[in-house]
Structures are given as C-alpha cells and as structure tokens.
Design goal:
Radius of gyration: 31 Å
Structural class: alpha+beta
Strand content: 15-25%
Distance between the termini: 67 Å
Number of helices: 19
Length: 506
Amino acid sequence: MSKQTIPFKKSPIEHDPDILSPSNLFDLLPKDHDCYIYKEILQQLDTTEVERKYSPEGQHAYHPKLLVSILIYAYSHGVFSAREIERRCGQDLAFMYICEMHCPNFRVLSDFRKDNSEFFHDCFKQTVRLAIELKLASLGHISLDGSKFKANSSKHKAMSYKRLKEKEAELTAEIEELVEQAARCDREEDAAYQERTGYEIPEDLKHKEKRLETVQAAKQALEEREEALNPGKTIEEKKQISFADKDARIMGKQGNFDYRYNAQISVDSDHQIIVGQHLSQHANDKQEVAPALENVRAATDGRLPEKMSADNGYLSGDNLEALEDSGVDCYIATSKGEKKDETPLDESARKLLKADFEYDPKEDCFTCPGGQILVVVGETKNGEKTYQGRAETCAACPYRSRCCQSKKGEARTINTDDKEPLRQRMNAKMEQQEAKDVYKKRKSIVEPVFGQIKNTGFRGFGVRGKEKAAGEFSLVCAAHNIKKISKAIIKGFVRPESGKLVANPI
C-alpha cells in the first residue's frame, strides 16, 4: 500500500519571499490593531507642563509625550514593570509602534514614573475632559467607591509606636554606654589595646547611631502622619509604620492585613469613565466624599454631578454634610440598624434597633417605643453624642429584654453624632422606591471598574510614598479612561477626524 501525501499548509514565504522584508514593518500588524487607535488618542495629550522641566543643554532626552504614551499603553495592557516595558518596546510590534521604534531604558521609564506625579494628575484630568467633550461622560449619575491596593512595602519591616519608643530608649542607652566605653579606653592604658587601632567601639557606635536615626525618623513620621489624619488625638500604642513607605497604613479585613492605600474613584454611568480619583490613607470611607467631590470638580472645570451614589461605608456625618453643602442629589445605603422594620414590635421577638426610636431634631433627643425620652449624656470634641434614658424606667419597660444589653442593668443608650438630622433625612429618602431604583444602578457603574483595573494585573504600587503612589494611581486611571475611549472608537461612538477625535451623532 503506497504512502499518501498529506496536504499540510505550506509556508507563506514560498509564495511571497518579500514577506521577510516588508516595505513597512508595521504592515505585519492587523489593520484593526488597537495600537493605531491608542496612537490617535495619545496624540491628544498635552505635555507642555512636563516639557518645561527639561533643559536644552546636554544629551537629548526622549520626548515626554513618547514616554507617557508608552506607560499608558503598557498599563492598559497589564504591563507594569519598567524592565518588562523596555523588553516589549524592543520586540513587541505594537509597543514598537507606540514608542516609534525607540527603546527607552527601564531606568528612564522608572524615573519618569517616579518624578512626574503632578503631570500624571494633569494627564488624568485631560482624559476626563476629552471623554466629556466626546460625550462619553455626562455627569448625570456618578458612583463613588474605594478599594485597597498594596503599598510597595512589607508588614515585616515595620514597628509599632510602642516598640519605636522602646527601641529609641534602648538605642539611646546603648549609645551612651558605648560613648562612655570609648572615653574610658582613651583614658586608660589597657595592655589589651596596645597593638590595636581602637576603632572597634567607634564602628559599633556608628552603627547604633545610624539605627537610632532611622528609628527616630520613623517615630517622627508616624507622629506627623497620625496628627494629620486624627488631629489632637492620642496616638495608640499599636499604630504601626513601615520603614520602606512611611505614608502607607495597615489595612485589611478577615486576617488579611498589609500596608495599603485606599484608592477612591468616581465613575460616570454613561461609559464607566473615571471622572474623579484620589488616594487616601484612611482605612474606611467615612471622610472621602469631600475630597472625591473636589477631585471631580478639578477634573471637570468646576462641574459637579447631578446624582451621586455610594455604599453604606460612606454613611457618616462628615460625608452627609459634604453632600448637603455641595447640593448634589445623593443616595447612600443605610445600615440594618438605621432601617425601619415594618414588623410590629408586639408581634415579634426581634431586638429594638436605632430605627425604632423616634428622633426629635428640635429637642435633640430620642423617644423609645416604650415612651421614654433619651437625652444627651455625653458629647466629644468630634461631635459624637451619647443619648441615654433612666435605668429605673428601662427596668419596668416590657421591651427591656429586647432593648437593653447592659449586664450591669444600665439604661439603653444610642450613639450618633451632631449630623443626626442629615442621617434621618437620608434614611427617609432611601425608603422611597425611586431612591432604591437609582441606588440599584451603583453596582453596575463603579464596581466593574475596579474589577477591570485589577484584572489587568494592577494590585499594588511600584513606587513609595503617598505623593508618588497617588501619581501612579492617576496613571492607572488615565490608562483606564483611554481604554474606554479606544473601545468607543471601535464601537463607532467616536471617530478620528483631521488629527482630532470627534463624537459621532447618535
């Protein structure tokens, strides 16, 4: 039986030898490759601000527009390492097209990323304004959310405030002892040191002094950081600081704690464009609305959204006051304790929640279901208030077993702050079906954006310090927006025209 010839595909080189030497190298890329679209978008960026930092003297530098284009394209495609970006620029056709056949050294890319935080903030704002101009964002409804990203540090290279103070005292005592030892050696004619230089103790002293300087610098940085975040408050002994990134703070939940930053984004509902972003050192979101609104205003030439939605983590007096002052129509989820339970108290065995107590804004007091009035018995400088009834009245109340939790027999207390009227208004608002319908959209607006950012591979910062990390996060958000604009071009919402991008009529 004769062997059959199997018709395998032949090499295209046999049919077209010129394929190995095309007239244009980039003809090898598919005509619809996204690098062409990115090039159109990236040309719209204004780099005048950073160009002023360069000097005409010395060796010619890479143009800032080229470097930022490379970084944005890389971040959009999940490449964050400066060494890997350099490698791609040397062998990946799409990267070669973006970098115009240049191949910047990884240190050039890394230094540009570290040294231009302010420019990246401006770069992000440019993407927001471009998106608004292209009708990809209208500021009709934005959603605010936060997510933790790992700092460029290790929790194993850190100390608590208590340990820093102990170590400072310990090293100070050791240095004093070493200085005294050195003085004794200079005074005494000890035979053991006759043939030696006597530098052993000073070297040890130098090492201890350097360690003391490091500890003192970390202690001072922790004190300054905590004073800025919590003015006037006593620093807790357990508060920690990293020696690598002194601005980062321990954040996490369910045992997963590490040095992180709290990244905040405000996302427009139209095409998931990020219209505002900032980096926070707070582990929770109770103080983030005011800076979020300010950053939206800065990125949109003074405009604010018509509506804003946020999850229950933002339900705080400070946030509600910021929204009240701004005039933005806000929708913030209320917690279980704040929501009214329609089940009659006499027909159920449920516990009494804060929502079961009626608040009187004029008298600033609560009335319990049993008719007792809870008045203010304590108030802090931060506006936190404690309301309490009378123990003897609570003892005779039929709801006592479901209301009072004190083992000592004390009366029921309610804790809130001086913004309780704002809380009450938000509670009432979120009970309405119209408000629930608006809030329901929040998940599909903002949460997928964090998913998209993390799915590209960005889980932590490559730079240290809040200022530089904030610059890198601006770069991340700018890359996200440009990716969205790129997709809008592919879908036909936007088209290039005469070197500019214009919105297609819908």
